[in-house]
Predict the structure of Arginine transporter.
Amino acid sequence: MLNRIVIAATAVMLTAPLAVAGPIDSACVRSDRARGNAPLCGCIQQVANQTLSRSDQRRAADFFRDPHRAQEVRTSKSDADNAFWARYKRFASAAEAYCR
């Protein structure tokens, strides 16, 4: 019984960092603004997992590499861009509140 608990705990500990890695986390860690703050980037990724689709996460990750791209999307007249921007703003607000 104890062996099963130890094995289960070890499996969780070994796979938890992998569950956090995602497009937002990767872009965040590489960005100048985050300065490699892995715990903060992991937290932001966790919020992204709860609030954004995988394709939205990939699109939002581009903002870390090219912040001007966010401005272009924000000011776009496209319905698709406007819908994405609304989802992105909800994500950003949630990440700001949760990852302080």
User: Anything to note?
Assistant: Residues 74 and 85 are 6 Å apart (CA to CA). The chain has six helices and no strands.
